[in-house]
Structures
1.
Amino acid sequence: MFRKAGERAPERLVPYDVDRPAVEAARRDPRDFEPLYRKYVGQVYSFAVYELHDHHAAEDLTEQVFMRALVGLPRFEERGTDGLSTFRVWLFQIARNALANERRGRMRHPQAPLEAALGLPALGPDPAAASLERDALDRAWQAIARLPGDRRRALVLRFVEEMTTHEIAGVMGRSEGSVRVLIHRALRAVADELRRD
Amino acid sequence: MTDAALRLDAYLEELLADREARRPRPAAHATPAVDPREAVAADLLARGLVRFHPSFRFEEALAARLRATADAMRLAAAAGGSPAEGTLLSFPGLSAASPMLSRERVPARGLLVGGAIASGVSLAGAAILAWRRGHRLASEGD
């Protein structure tokens, strides 16, 4: 806890961020932000679609996120073990904040059902199996739509964005343990829905 | 609950890694470490929760707006000296007549604050001011 006089502070462990070279380039010249934008625009947009159930609103949110990221880049810093932040985690933190603002503005408007708003993906070549799977996925959507926001968000970040628990914890401002529990509960709710006849 | 959540986390790690690598997987119920029903649900979501991508038109329009903002930020830094002076800069290339902001490239839609064109300009303007402020704070911190 206390260090003796003259003793150096232990160096912080900073996880390697694969985007560090691109971030440094964009800091030197904002025009070099584009590769970061190209890399993450699909992820941010997809996250927004799952949250807002509306492609136009998702586009608007995506624009806000990248504009904020571009101008905020000088203030971004990777943090060590006391508070993980890579560029991707930071970007999704911006998205989460923008989403909270957006949601306050949309409180008066009904949201489209998730499955209707997004359309369901094509599944498999076998029509009979695809039909069964489609039905199961329909019910999974219904369960996901009923989940509390934080559980749904954790599930989407895990399955769609393929984030680790560590990254999701950084985005959501929670401990890794609580993120695991959120995902477990969310998945159990989906499993319960699938079991129902 | 915590142990089960930990085991599920490890299962998801494998599941998503296999999906990424397009490796075939054993049936979900063959995994003893997690509840078989949860494993089935996880497998279904891994196949069914897809990532969406914005339209090419939107992606390119936003890329153009970001480039314009980046250009303006760079000009502001080069022109100036100290961003602390707080003078407003002209906004090169972002006049209302700019082809980059024409309705051809940015479809008008009933969105938040006045549609995409208005929001593009106001966001870019706000971006410059915010960047100048952030840049100053960053400089002071050095």
2.
Amino acid sequence: MTTADPTRSVAIRVDRPNAPSADAAVAREPAVDLRDVSVYYGSFRAVRNITFDAPANAITALIGPSGSGKSTLLRAINRMNDLIPGSRFEGQILYHGQNLYAPDVDPVEVRRRIGMVFQKANPFPKSIYDNVAFGPRINGFKGNLDELVEQSLRRAVLWDEVKDKLKQSGLTLSGGQQQRLCIARAIAVEPEIILMDEPASALDPRSTLQIEELMAELRARYTIIIVTHNMQQAARASDYTVFLNMGDDRAGYIVERDRTIEIFTNPKNQLTEDYVSGRFG
Amino acid sequence: MTISAPSTDRPLGVALMGSAARRRRERLIRLVFLSAALVSVIISALIVVSLIGGAADFVSKILPAQLLEDGWYPRRDEFGLLTLLAGSLLVSGIALLLAVPIGLMSAIFLAEYAGPRTRRIVKPVLEILAGIPSVVLGFFALTWISPRVVQLINPSASDFNLMAAGLGVGVLTIPLIASISEDAMRAVPASLREASYGLGARRITTSLRVVVPAALSGIVAAVILGISRAIGETMVVAVAAGGSGGSQFTVDPFEQGQTITAAMASLAAGTDQVVGSNVAYQSLFFLGLLLFVMTFTLNQLGDVFVRRTRQQY
Amino acid sequence: MTAIARPIGDTSLRRTGTDWAGLAFHGVLLASLLVSLLILFTLIADVAGRGLPILAERGTDFLTAPTSSRPARAGVAQGIFGTLMMAVFVAIIAFPVGIMTAVYLEEYAADNRLTRFINVNIRNLAGVPSVVYGLLGLSIFVISLKNLTGGRSLIAGGITLAILVLPIVIITSAEAIRAVPRGLREAGFGIGASRWEVTRLLVIPHAAPGILTGTVLALSRALGETAPLILAGAVLGGFSTGGKDFVEQLFGRYTTLPVTIFDWARRPQADFRELTAAAIIVLLVVTLLANAIAILLRNRYERSS
């Protein structure tokens, strides 16, 4: 914090209990590398010229006001936008050196390596066990399914709460539990990257904190990219932050991208500072 | 315990392409479903082609004057079209005189007055009415409506008569008009009703002066589709209105008669020898084409009004 | 000068008189509903009154005897057989094709001109009078494809009916599929399921109750249809099926319950009136049974999902 300028008033208190130590600024290989990405819906450009990379085993947060294209960008990473008729992609997204949008790439394979947790928890109308087992089953998993289900539920910090009722429907759980079930479900296919689209926005504060703690634990095994409109959450929970804003052409663009500490205490761009101190958005 | 173990043996670029077998399977499945969807297109084409083909054949074999004859007796080469048109219009007219008031009022009751308990009793009744096979209703029209209602009004009516058939068709049409009108009325936003009640209007006023006008497009659609249904109805007329060999031109509902549809049924049912390329057989297609055009036009018109209700709200 | 009926100083909230118009209107509305109820009631009572004595008197003989020109000997066995076979044809032709069409339209089709054309086309087909389908059956399946179907055969009639109810199956199945929440599909895709996997494992199970309801509706409609079969060659009058095996009957002449009812309804002998009513009872029972079975299936699906 030695570069902090005392004359700048930043309204965010940066309290980061789960952050790695500041010395662990090891150069991490990017898990995913976006280069000059633009996404169109028909003739409307939702995001333009996005370039950044998300380091492996770290949490990268995408923040910005509504309309800045954060969700669109997130969904481009696992090719969920492909399902929207009329959507078009320009640029490259590199994953271990491979462009995910190369012509012969199968989006289904992409999504098996890059998982997603949605804003509103959407467990399948099946038992808790079947929810978690769904992904492995369609992948032709031949090993011990019970073990995999337990491991996934443990990693999602849900096992103790549901271990006696695995046959119950997933829909009988509370909101926070359902979301953790969705995380367990995503983990069960053993992705490298987990995308989270405002995973706690529909939850109460306690569940929100639980999800954030869970994210911190998951970071050891997975790379996490999270979209959030909650700045305190981004400041608390993430290692890197990408700040997007909506331009005059209504397309989202990157204003600044840096380690979270820097974005919130020492932003380089006036717009960034205005946003994180709540002057707009 | 990695489940992606098989794919990590391959270079990532290849693994991301996925399995060719699975992609082939997905493409095949898509093709199968598309073929199923095309079946309906083929059916439409077949209907249009066979109707036009047979009708053209018919028209080429007769003199136009034959269409203006005084009666429809196809086996005697008398093809008086006006006879059948008059019959269809008469039967449909009577049917609508019964079905529109009752259907509309039932709809107003269900949309504006009925509580959930009443609805639970009334809606099934209408659904059952809609599900009665038309031949059963034809029997009822012949054996009950004709003696007990029609001959009550006019004791000299013949046993088979167009009025009984019309009333029978009306009964079948009530549920259709009721349900489409009710849907249209329920689509009227609550805010309009609240505004009316808020001004101190009573239920009858709100229903008749606010809801019904607001739902007018839907009600018009219901009536138009009701007409289409009535014109397309065959068995009630075939059983109750008589005219098995043919019919004479009449506008008297208390007499026997035929509609376009009943004439088709009677011609096909008459003898074993309908099949062939004689003119009587082709007249079937001529009538069929006429019927198809009439109902198609009415349906399109009805749809225009249905879309108008949707656009409004 | 004021148009309001109440004088401005009047603060009473009491009604100024009985609302005769409102009451009368309410009464008229109720009456119109009662008319429908009465009609239904009268119909059932009349049919039951005429037909039940016959069933009581002749019992199973009525159900197992073939049709005949003599009232005392005529039965609905051939009619029942034909009706059941129609149900089979509808089930094996209309259900799969209809459900697959709905799946294509809702899950696979892009929003382009072909898709919109198919949709419009199906709606049009749904509004075509049943007698025109009979004409289609006659010209294509009875005549043109005579060598394949056997002419005026049960097969030709069955296919005709299946085509008739196809639009109903498509429209109701498509509605059921459309009602499946988007989040369910997204969750499936997010896990890396393919479109077929999402459709087969998530969408169709969720839409199953609605799809089953649609098939019930279609089946009921098909079982009650007469006009298309008359045009497509069902037999009016007597015919013998004795000595024919199952396959021969498929390719041979046939009748169904509604066709039998039509046939008997036209006969001049007074005794046939009662017989017709009895046959109607059998038809209604069969239709009710089919509905009940399907509703049971649907409830079982709803509970297990």
